[in-house]
Amino acid sequence: MKKWFHRQNKWIQRGLLLGSFSIALVAIAMTLILLYALISGPPPLTTEQNTIYYSQDGSVIEEDFGSKRRYWVDLDDISPYIIQATLTSEDRHFYDHSGFDMKRIGAAVLKNIRNLAKVEGASTITQQYARNLYLSHEKTWVRKTKEAIYALRLEMFYDKDEILAGYLNSIYYGHGAYGIEAASRYFFDKHANELSLSESAMLAGIPKGPSYYSPFNNEENANDRQKQILASMEAAGHIDASKSALASQEKLAYHEPNKEDAPDIAPYFQDAVAVEAMNRLDIDREQLTVGGYHIYTTLDIPTQKVLEKSMEQHIDKNSEIQAAGIVIAPETGSIQALAGGRNYETSSFNRVTQAKRMVGSTIKPFLYYEALGSGFTPTTQLVSKPTKFELGNGEVYAPSNFDGYYANEPITMAQALALSDNIYAVKTNVYLGPERLKETLGKFGISGKIPAVPSLALGTATLSLYDMTKAYSKLARPEEENVPHTITKITDSHGNMLYEYEPPDNESMIDPKRAFLTAHMMTGMFDSSLDGYMRVTGSSIAGKLSRPYSGKSGTTNTDSWMIGFSPELVTGIWTGYDQGKQITRTSELQYSKDIWADVMEQSHQDRTFSTLKAPEGVVGVYVDPATGLRATPYCDTQRLMYFEEDKIPESFCTEHTFEENRQPREKEKNKGGWKDLLEWLF
User: Fold this and answer.
1) Which part of the chain is the Glycosyl transferase family domain (predicted)?
2) Does the structure show a pLDDT above 80 at 643?
């Protein structure tokens, strides 16, 4: 028994010793923290953390100021109602604690344990103020420790009224309004000392979630939050039941806020950057605005200016038609320029990323890419004439060509693409099976509600300009798996890396041989040697182009598209009316092509001349464009076309002979005499 008691006393002694040692360590740690806080001195009560956007060359394109609407007012110039409402909703014991509400922390911990999730926080006004002023919103223990030290320094060197005034002057109320004076002016067009009880309760509820509780974003959520705060104020004894009831029923007269000035450079592009940054950092718009981030973008300012200027020059200023454009470097996936509309201040809706329209014939390159994998070649011939297709459900589908023109004879795939022949496209789609085209679009990164029907070959799917241009970039660079992006990296205000773009580690699903063959066929829209029953679709801008490009236009009743590329750049242009109004003026159908030609030509002025390189296993031969057979010296026109080695045409054209070429010349000789003969000979 003595041994047992001796053993127990030994463990008790060890426990007491360990406890004393732990208490001593905590005391030392607390002393060191207090010493550090004391030595560090008073932190400033205001700070600026502006998020800055940089272009591709490192120049600043925009500074997103956290203080765009910030006005400092003394506590005496703030309505007592907003002070009471804020204290009641955020920190009831603000004047009783030293920066940390231990009772509230304990209650929150117990509640979170019971619910096995974080359902309640316990940050005091001092802690929130410290976080907003000096720290990011990342959820790490390091940040929480720093927050505690900053809160301690605030409490050590400033009195409670100074801290409360600083908090009310810096807290974010949404819509770019920082501080209660800015919020008062923005929501009610009055000063902070003029706020009524009802208005104060409404504003006090917003900082908990500016996007969720702003009456301009969600009035129902805002009203519910206002009533909760009024009830809390009544329970705390700040107001009586009658005042609470009257305030909750009061109809608030909101001020119609003025529209913010659009950024000077690439406003639609900057919106896209903001969305991408929020996704990469997993933050909301308010946190992005005040986070002090340095965002390095892919914007090429000269290309952006060319895009915007071309849209302005070519489109009739009195027309209500809209336009959108995007330029991507396919080798890296970097978005060099983006314009989501003609005027950002009139409409900030981004028609590159947000609008979905019927894509028309711009879908055909993907159809022919798939056909090349099923035995077709650029010279495969099908008859272009009015055709009725009997569908599985018993219905009959009868597509037509533009303005009712047909070859009424066989044409090659290369010519069908250059002329945008609809009959050839639908026949090909029916032969392959519409599901095949839908699957092919998926390989090029296009998904969504795509109808697997014969008319899909004519672009009946509604897709975004962003998705279509992204898909074309895979034709330009099939070996790359880069995702179009606007951001190369993001750092904090101290230069610490928070995000850096890296291409996905995926194996490309695009066949480089078929991609090259398709891309080369797409140069045909600018080549008059492929003229047939009508001129090639790019003939109106072919004279403006100084180098070879691959492209495809598309036209529906309401939309006009032009997408094309070189090895360096892919440009997509869309024009049309927002409300689906039909395009009736012929000149308006030309806008997309003219803009595209300007952007491509001017963006390539300082670039080395280059062409698409044929991959191994692909060879080029000259063919007669009409027959699709190998050309002879007697063919009037010849075009270089590419084929996989085992699919080169073996037969030579026999429709053009020496005699056929000589006869017209002999007729001219006889008609013009010896002078014409000499000109013909020499």
Assistant:
1) 66-233
2) yes
Q: Are 202 and 226 in contact (CB under 8 A)?
A: yes
DSSP per-residue letters across 345-361: TT----TTTT--EE-GG
Catalytic entry in 361, 420, 473, 592 = 361
CATH code assigned at 436:
3.40.710.10
Q: Are residues 533 and 413 in the same domain?
A: yes
Tell me, yes or no, if 659 is annotated catalytic: no
Of the candidates 597, 549, 591, 598, which has an alpha carbon nearest to the alpha carbon of residue 574?
Answer: 591
| Phi, then psi, of 536 in degrees rounded to 5 | -60, 150
For residue 596, is it within any domain? yes
610 assigned to some structural domain: no
For position 97, which CATH number holds? 1.10.3810.10
How many domains are there within the chain?
4
* Of the candidates 365, 413, 628, the residue with the CA atom closest to the CA atom of residue 515: 365
Q: In the prediction, which pLDDT does 660 show?
A: 53
Burial of 217-237, coded b for 16+ CB within 10 Å and e otherwise, reads eeeebbbebbbebbbbbbeee
Q: Are the beta carbons of 561 and 536 closer than 8 angstroms?
A: no
- Contact between 142 and 122 under an 8 Å Cβ cutoff? The reply is no
Q: What pTM, to 2 d.p., does this model score?
A: 0.69
Residue 395 pLDDT: 84
Residue 361 falls in the annotated catalytic set:
yes
The count of other CB atoms within 10 Å of the CB of residue 51 is 22
Residue 179 CA to chain centroid, in angstroms?
31
- CA-to-CA distance for 331 and 329, rounded, in angstroms? 6
For residues 515 and 465, give the distance between their C-alpha atoms in angstroms, rounded to a whole number: 20
